[in-house]
């Protein structure tokens, strides 16, 4: 009962434009190897109807992992909403070897991703929130906060990018099928020290999203996450490449990273000032962007 009360409070708060946190603390499990904690979390998620899409164990962060799952209701809404909304097809849950579990707050992330169309998917978002609470528990939100009114047009500060930035576009192909094939082939080959975490492809709607592990020792996920001390918000990962029609995109870092870590100040972000362009370069290679 307390789990569902927590979910209800989150939605009442957000509808009143109160602060919404990007992550929710789940019930802690017994400490174990990261893979073992991950397996236990996957079992809980499957038990309430989620489909596991993939696992991610970031290089150089051996105590941390991420489980990505899908939900039929959210995916059906994404098919209806279309376009860049595909970026929200994966639902991310973070784990740690000490038994700590957390997950992305659907109310936060889908308000940001679906923007003006959020109301059309709100029932599915509420259902996902309730299922996560039922499977994993619903503790306190953490990682900073933004209001429901601000999330659809979120940017960190004046002049920075929003969800629909022109900088999202990475590559254009002759067809949707060719774009998807290029990404799959490049991830299979480990181009730019990457690998695939998950994929969701909707061929009829010509939309796809790929979760990409960036494994480079100096430029990859573990490196920039550690520089900002963001490990507790590990459910921010993995980064997404998404395809709409014949164009491959990725949310630009000054939007995607800031949205993931709204509790960080400018001093933190100055430590990774080059990361948005480095991420764009890495994902551009995976997307098949032509060298400049």
Major beta sheet, specifics?
A: 6 strands, antiparallel
- What is the N-to-C order of secondary-structure elements (H for helix, E for strand)? HEEHEEHEEHHEEEHEEHEEHHH
Radius of gyration using CA atoms only = 18 Å
Strand content: 15-25%
Number of domains: 2
CATH class division of the largest domain = Alpha Beta
> Kindly state the mean pLDDT as a whole number?
93
Structure notes:
The chain is of the alpha+beta class. It folds into two domains: 2-152, 2-Layer Sandwich (TATA-Binding Protein), CATH 3.30.310; 155-287, TT1751-like domain (TATA-Binding Protein). The protein is 39% helix and 21% strand. The protein is built from ten helices and 13 strands. The strands form three sheets. Strands 3-4-5-6-2-7 form a six-stranded antiparallel sheet. Strands 9-13-12-11-10 form a five-stranded antiparallel sheet, covered by helices on one side. The protein starts with a helix and ends in a 5-residue tail after the last helix. 48% of the residues are buried. Mean pLDDT is 93; it is low at 1-16.
Q: Helix and strand layout, with pairings?
A:
Layout: H1 2-15, E1 19-20, E2 23-25, H2 34-47, E3 51-56, E4 64-70, H3 72-81, E5 91-96, E6 101-104, H4 106-114, H5 118-136, E7 141-142, E8 146-147, E9 169-172, H6 176-189, E10 194-202, E11 207-214, H7 221-227, E12 239-244, E13 247-249, H8 253-260, H9 266-270, H10 275-287
Antiparallel strand pairs: 1-8, 2-6, 2-7, 3-4, 4-5, 5-6, 9-13, 10-11, 11-12, 12-13
Helix pairs in contact: 1-5, 2-5, 3-5, 4-5
């Amino acid at each position: 009962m307390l789990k569902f009360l927590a979910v209800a409070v989150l939605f009442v708060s957000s509808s009143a434009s109160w602060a919404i946190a990007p992550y929710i603390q789940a019930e802690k499990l017994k400490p174990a190897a990261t893979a073992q904690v991950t397996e236990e979390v996957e079992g809980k998620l499957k038990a309430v109807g989620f489909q596991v899409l993939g696992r991610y164990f970031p290089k150089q962060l051996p105590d941390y992992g991420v489980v990505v799952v899908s939900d039929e209701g959210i995916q059906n809404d994404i098919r209806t909403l279309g376009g860049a909304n595909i970026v929200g097809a994966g639902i991310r849950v973070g784990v740690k070897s000490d038994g700590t579990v957390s997950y992305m707050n659907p109310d936060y992330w889908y308000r940001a991703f679906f923007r003006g169309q959020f109301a059309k998917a709100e029932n599915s978002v509420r259902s996902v929130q309730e299922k996560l609470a039922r499977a994993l528990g619903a503790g306190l939100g953490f990682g900073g906060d933004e209001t429901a009114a601000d999330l659809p047009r979120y940017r960190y500060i004046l002049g920075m990018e929003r969800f629909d930035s022109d900088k999202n576009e990475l590559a254009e192909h002759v067809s949707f099928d060719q774009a998807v094939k290029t990404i799959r082939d490049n991830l299979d080959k480990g181009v730019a020290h990457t690998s695939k975490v998950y994929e969701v492809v909707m061929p009829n709607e010509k939309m796809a999203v790929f979760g990409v592990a960036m494994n480079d020792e100096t430029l990859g996920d573990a490196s920039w996450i550690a520089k900002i001390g963001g490990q507790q918000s590990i459910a921010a990962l993995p980064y997404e490449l998404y395809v709409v029609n014949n164009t491959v995109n990725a949310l630009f870092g000054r939007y995607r990273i800031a949205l993931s870590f709204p509790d960080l100040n400018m001093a933190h972000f100055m430590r990774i000032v080059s990361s948005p362009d480095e991420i764009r370069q890495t994902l551009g290679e995976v997307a098949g962007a032509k060298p400049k």
